Amino acid sequence: MSSTTVVSIDQTVGFKNQVHCTEYLVNGELKTWKGNTSEVYSTIYTENEQGEPGPTLLGSIPDMETEVALEALNAAEKAFHRGQGLWPTMRVADRLKCLSNFVEKMKLHREEVVELLMWEIEKNKADAQKEFDRTVDYIYDTLEAYKNLDRRSARFDKEGGVHAHIRRGPLGVVLCLGPYNYPLNETFCLLIPALIMGNTTIFKPAKHGVLLITPLLKAFHESFPPGVVNILFGRGRKIASPIMKTGKVDVLALIGHSSSAVALQDLHPNKNRLRLVLGLEAKNPGIILPDADMELTVKECISGTLSYNGQRCTALKMLFVHESIVEEFNTKFAQAVDALKYGLPWEEGVFLTPLPEPGKPAYIQELIQDAVDGGAKIINDKGGQLTHNYSFPAVLYPVNKEMRVYHEEQFGPVIPIIPYSDISEPLDAMAASEYGQQVSLFGRDVRKIGPLIDTLANLVCRVNLNSACQRGPDVYPFTGRKNSAVSTLSVYDALRSFSIRTFVASKDTPYNNEILETLLNSNESNFISTDYLL
Ligand code: G3H
Question: Does residue 525 register a pLDDT over 60?
C-alpha cells in the first residue's frame, strides 16, 4: 500500500458549464431561492484561479430551510387533499398523459444529465449513458405495467352475494430520498411508480449527484398539477427530519443506509401510518465452488466487485473461495484487477474512475490497514495505490472474521477474499450477517449446486448462478432480507409497493345493482368504471 498522496491536476480544463441553481419546485411553482447556497465540487482536480490543483467547482444549490420544507409538505398534502385531490382521483388516461409528457421532456436533457453524472459522481461515460437510458425505459415500462394493472381492475368480482370492484389506490404523501450512486435511476424508480399510483411527493436529491436533477425541474413543473411533485435542495436534517416529525408522511421511500432510514422512521409519531419502501445496504458474497469455470468466474467477479468501483448496493463485497482453487483464483483475479483501466469518466474504455466522496479513499485505506494488521496481504501489485481521489482496488487475502472489511459494507474498491474448506463456512457467515440481498454462486455440479440453491434462496432474495449480482433487468423483483430492504421494487412490484388494495362492495340486490349500472353508464366515478386503455 502506498502511503503518499499524489496531488496532481487530473484535467487542465475545468467544468465549463457550471450550474448555479436557485430554483426549487413547490406547489406547482418554480420559485427562486434567496437564502444560503452550497457549492458543489467534483473530487476531480483542475487548476483553480490561483493556478493550484484542487477540487473542481461544478455549481451551487440552495441550502434550504425547514420553513420551505414544511411549505412543500403542505403543498403535497393539499394536492392529495384527503384523497379528494385532482391527482389521486384523476382518470388513468390523464395521469398517464402527464407521465408521458414528462418523459418526452426529460429525454431532451440526456446530454446535460450524462455530463453531470460524469463530473458529479464520476461514473464512466458508458455507465452514465446507461443510467439515463435505463431510467427512460423504466418509465415507459411503468406506463405499460400501469395500463395492465388497470385493465385487470376494470371488472367486478362476485363472492358470497357481494359485488366487489377492487382497485389499487394511492397511499398519500410520499417522501422520496435517493442515493448518490444512482442519483437519477434509483430515485426515479421510487418517484415514478409513486406518482403513477396517485400519490403526491416531496423529493430531495442526495448530497452527491444533485445538480443533474436541475435540468429536469422545468419538465416536472410543466408536466404535473400543482403540489404533486415538490423538489427541494439542502440538508436532510433541515428538510427530511422536520417533515417526518409532523407525522403527515404516509410513505418513506428511501434508497440509502439503514441508519438513515431508522433515524427518519423514529421521528414519525404515527408509526403504523408510515409505510416503508427501502433499498438499503448489503454485503453480497460470491461463493466459488471447486469446479467453477475459472475464466468465467474471474470475469464475473471483476464486474461484480468493481463496476462503478464497487459503489453499488448489489456489488459483490466478499468472495468465499474454496481452498483447493484459491491460489489459482487469486493469481488470475489479481492480474485482472491490475489490468483494469483507471482514468477520468469521459476517457475511452475507462472502467475505474475517481471516487466522488472526498473521505472515501482514506476510509478504504483504513480497511486495508486493519486487514493487513490482522495478517492479510494485498495480493495485487497496484492494490491500495493512493491519489487525492482514488485508492486503487486492493485484493486482500486471507481475510477473516476479525477484520473490519469482513463485516463493513465497504462500498468502494477493496475486495476481501476468504478461503473456506467446508461450504457451511460461507453459509454460516450469510446466516449470521445483518444483510440478505443477493449471492453469486459459481460452480457446475448439480448435486452440489441443487441443495445449495435451496438453502441460499432462504438466506437472500436472488441467487445468481455463475454471474455477478445485479438489480436488473428491472422487471425482476429487487428486494432483500434483514437490513437490506423493506418492500419489493420492480416495474411490476413498485406499483404495488406504492399503493393499497381498496374496493367498493355492494350486496347483490336489485336496488344496489341498479345504482351500480347507472354509475357505470354515467362516468360520475373514476373508480367505478369498467373502461380501460388498450
Ligand atoms: O446500488 C444498488 C443498485 O440498485 C444496483 O443496481 O445492480 O443495476 O448496479 P445495479
Answer: yes
For ligand 1, residues with CB inside 6 Å are 181-182, 186, 312-314, 470-472
Please, which residues have CB within 8 angstroms of residue 256's CB and are 6 or more apart in sequence?
A: 177, 178, 179, 206, 279, 280
Give CA separation, 97 vs 93, 102, 294, in Å: 6, 9, 50
Burial of residue 514, with CB atoms counted within 10 A of its CB: 0-12 exposed, 13-18 middle, 19 or more buried: exposed
97 alpha carbon to ligand 1 midpoint, in Å? 29
Over residues 104-124, mean pLDDT: 98
Minimum CA distance residue for ligand 1 atom 6: 471
5 pLDDT higher than 80: no
Give per-residue pLDDT as tens, 242-284.
999 999 999 999 999 999 999 999 999 999 999 999 999 999 9
Closest CA to 512 of 164, 167, 168: 164
CA distance 533 to 150: 8
> How far, in Å, from the CA of 227 to the mean position of ligand 1?
30
Q: What's the rounded Cα separation, in Å, for the pair 216 and 411?
A: 28
8 A C-beta contact, residue 144 and residue 138: no
Summarised one tens digit per residue, pLDDT across range 389-421 is 999 999 999 999 999 999 999 999 999 999 999
Mutate to test the pocket of ligand 1, among 131, 186, 189, 307 (most ligand atoms within 8 A of CB): 186
Q: How far is the CA of 309 from the centre of ligand 1 (A)?
A: 12
pLDDT on residue 1: 47
